[in-house]
Amino acid sequence: MSSSSDEFRDPAIDIRGLTVRRGGNPVLHGVSLAVRAGTITGLLGPSGCGKTTLLRSIVGTQIVESGSVSVLGSPAGARRLRSRVGYVTQAPSIYGDLTVRRNVAYFAALAGAARSEVAAALDAVGLGRYQNRRAADLSGGQRTRVSLACALVADPDVLILDEPTVGLDPVLRAELWERFHRLADDGRTLVVSSHVMDEADHCDELVLLRDGRLLAQLTPAALRSTTGEDRLEDAFLALVEGVPGGRRAAEDAVEEEEAAR
Ligand SMILES: Nc1ncnc2c1ncn2[C@@H]1O[C@H](COP(=O)(O)OP(=O)(O)OP(=O)(O)O)[C@@H](O)[C@H]1O
After folding, report:
1. Ligand 1 centroid from CA 29, angstroms
2. How open is the CA angle 190-194-199, to the nearest 5 degrees?
3. Can you give the residue ranges of every domain in the chain?
4. Which of 20, 29, 43, 49 to mutate to test the pocket of ligand 1 (most atoms within 8 A of CB)?
5. What is the mean pLDDT of residues 172-197?
6. Centre of ligand 1 from the C-alpha of residue 164, in Å
7. What's the 19 CA to ligand 1 centre distance in angstroms?
8. What does pTM read for this prediction?
9. Per the database record, which ranges form the ABC transporter domain (predicted)?
10. Atom 7 in ligand 1: which residue has the minimum CA distance?
11. Which of 33, 37, 133, 208 could lock 12 by a disulfide, CB 3.0 to 4.6 Å apart?
């Protein structure tokens, strides 16, 4: 982590009264939450509830109607955050005509990372043996992994990951979660969106969104104890059922999760 990480105190991400409209429609309604440095926060909720919009707001690529988002003590999107905040979008943003290795080397050069870090980032996502293949010739899951390697190689203080494990096999998913834990142990702050409730157990804290509103921010253990449910999927359902009209949204979320498996 860069030495300048000492400049800020908790929280690493501070969101207050965030309201966002997209295409004229309200998408986030006064969301407030704080993310501690050195933790993994899971952002969970049904499709369309506003997860990506919230992540874009943290990165500073989303036009915000009102409220504030501060990252490492600076407004989201501030110039000084560029090298300190990594963002892996749902759709991999890589160069199809470059090899896997060149894609990662390019992002390493932008970030001023050592060339030796390129191989390490490729190994971390299990793509070492594909390094000379054109990115355009990879599967969807492999392209996602190249995108992830491009973010990892820059070694950012804050890593924002939009569904990073979609389409990955269980072994690779487990390895990536181990890697995420090591990054958090080293003081990096990770925010990871997911449809998959069983991934929630990897997180220190969960942010549950529904219809653009914050349902709860709590640990997996607290989610279990407040709902009396052991399976996080059931706990999420129980929590959503406490909200009028919540059951349908919760059932949709579970259906999507099952379809994604
Ligand atoms: N470019 C856009 N213009 C208008 N509306 C948009 C745009 N992008 C997203 N939306 C709407 O904003 C809402 C929130 O979308 P968002 O992508 O943040 O949800 P999400 O929770 O990340 O969904 P998913 O899990 O399916 O990726 C949705 O109702 C979506 O239709």
Report:
1. 14
2. 80
3. 3-82+159-170+189-260, 85-155
4. 49
5. 90
6. 17
7. 14
8. 0.87
9. 13-236
10. 22
11. 37
Q: Alpha-carbon distance 167 to 163, whole Å?
A: 10
Q: Which helix (H) or strand (E) holds 159?
A: strand 158-162
* Interval between CA 192 and ligand 1 midpoint (Å): 16
CA dihedral defined by 113, 116, 121, 127, rounded to 10 degrees? 140
Tell me the CATH architecture of domain 3-82+159-170+189-260.
3-Layer(aba) Sandwich (3.40)
Has the ipTM of the complex gone over 0.85? Answer: yes
DSSP codes of every residue in 37-104: TT-EEEEE-STTSSHHHHHHHHHT-S--SEEEEEETTEETT-GGGTTTEEEE-SS----TTSBHHHHH
User: If you count DSSP H runs as helices and E runs as strands, how many of each does the chain have, helices first?
Assistant: 8, 10
Residue 87 structure tokens: 């963002």
Average model confidence (pLDDT) for the chain?
88
Residue that the structure tokens 């979008």 belong to: 89
pLDDT tens string 61-102:
999 999 999 999 999 999 999 889 999 998 888 999 999 999
Residues contacting ligand 1 via CB (< 6 Å): 22-23, 27, 45, 47-53
